[in-house]
Amino acid sequence: MSTIPVMIPWLGEEEAQAAADAVRSGWVAQGPRVAEFERAFAAHLGVPHAVAVSSCTTALHLALIGAGVGPGDEVVVPSLSFIATANAVTYVGATPVFADVELATGNLTAETVAPLLTARTRAVIAVDQGGVPVDLDAIRELVEPLGATVVEDAACGAGSLYRGRPVGSTAQLAAYSFHPRKLLTTGEGGMVTCQDGEVAARLRRLREHGMSVSASDRHAAGGGASVLETYDEIGFNHRMTDIQAAVGLVQLRKLPAMVRRRRELADRYRELLGPLGERLVADPEHGTGNFQACWLLLPDGALDRTELLAGLAAVGISARRGIMAAHLEAPYKGTARVPLPVTELITGRSVILPLYHSLTEDQQDRVIAGLRELIG
Ligand SMILES: *Cc1c(COP(=O)(O)O)cnc(C)c1O
Q: Which residue positions are annotated as catalytic (predicted)?
């Protein structure tokens, strides 16, 4: 009996060919394919600027700098998120302030953010957890009059829609991940999108050591001494490679098919899980998700989650504990300013079910049978 993993990226010959072409071209670091991937990603979202970087973590780092966040500032974030969301705030010398989330979406709301706003709040990071669109407008209406910026952590969100538009596309700044645990993958990789041309130009410099003229532009100009770069502020090496971008261009074309298939499989879980199906994460009123993480909130009194995961593993099914909560981990322990009961409920009582493009209905039936047998 083969094991059913929780996720397999949908990669094929076309991606292998694209990566090989990049290698054969001799240009493997950030170059023409990164520029093409940025244009294609911006066009897909309908945003003016997209800056490719090495991960969503580095995308969040740059987005916070772009939002003017620095030492002494506070940034409201959900604790219920991959720890990179909070860590990015720490990288810029600011303090992550943890807000609770709503049960239905696992996301921040204006109501959970409001009590945490102070005179020091410089930004809020609104996460589209598991690809479920966050209600961005409500949070922006609350926060922007105070002079703070809402950065969207759309790490999981490529392919999800918010009020009919791609998730992240309406934010001042948004960050995406192309890690294989998300839908569209480049191995490792990320993107920052933004509305403002000057901010985008600064982020392009910051991802490349603060260089005023990028290495690929210098090369394109003939590499002559006529294009001398300067270094006007301290930057980073947050670049994506052309090999990754080549894969990303293929993956972006496949994204609509990935989302369609994942949504079909999520619907099928909901139908066939019986009463348990109602405990599966679902689309909110304001958008549609890509089911990057398809989580099930375990009923009260059902068997212990560790036992459930072990029971599933025993029949060859790999599920995962639910999304983590940063305030329960060592670096942030004891820092929560308010109780986070919904966060603790979701992180403690949910499991993420196997869901990937090539999951067959027979395999999914095995997962459903395993869950129904163990939970009832
Ligand atoms: C995966 C993830 C990240 C980090 O993405 P990387 O590309 O691995 O750096 C950040 N935020 C959220 C919400 C994520 O799910």
A: 182 (proton acceptor)
DSSP codes, 231-299: B-S---B-PPPHHHHHHHHHHHHHHHHHHHHHHHHHHHHHHHTGGGGGGB----TTEE---SS-EEEPP
Atom in ligand 1 nearest the alpha carbon of residue 60: 10
* Whole-angstrom distance, CA of residue 269 vs CA of residue 264: 9
Span from the CA of 55 to the centroid of ligand 1 (angstroms):
8
pLDDT digits (tens, 9 = 90+) for 145-184: 999 999 999 999 999 999 999 999 999 999 999 999 999 9
Domains recognised in the chain with CATH numbers = 13-252 (3.40.640.10), 255-375 (3.90.1150.10)
Pocket of ligand 1 (CB under 6 A): 55-57, 81-82, 84-85, 127, 153, 155-156, 177, 179, 190
Residue nearest to atom 1 of ligand 1 (CA): 155
